[in-house]
Amino acid sequence: MTTLKSKLHDDLNVAIRERDELSSSTLRLTLTAITKEEVAGTEKRELSDDEVFEVITREAKKRREAADAFARGGRPEQAEREKAEGEFLARYLPQQLSDDELNAIVAQAVEEAKAAGAQGPRAMGEVMKIVNPKVAGQAEGGRVAAAVKKSLAGS
After folding, report:
1. How confident is the model at residue 121 (pLDDT cuts 50, 70, 90)?
2. For residues 99 and 75, what is the distance between their CA atoms, to the nearest angstrom?
3. Which of 100, 106, 94 is nearest to 144 (CA)?
């Protein structure tokens, strides 16, 4: 079992002992998503810590999106619950990049792409190929894409 997955199991046991309903239910749902990912495909496999991070990131994003949807739908109690679950899951994720850090990485990638000859709309894809591995797990794709578009529009 990977270290992150075992930490989730240990934290679940603690949450159950402390009768922390929010933590235990969130961890159960997350561990279920991890197990589902492990058995997806033709054969069962053990996820690496990076893959577990991806699953947790997806689950946290689902919670944020659900919180927004419930807030727009006039269900503030459910929106607060989803938001709290998302914040709980964020504890297991790497620290997110600040806007300045992200913009610096994007600016460097834009220069690399231009040096390689990428121009116009095609440069977006080239820059994203350079930026995504550098910011994996530290910035959401939509945020990265917005920073790349802004940088390309300004140059």
Report:
1. low
2. 31
3. 106
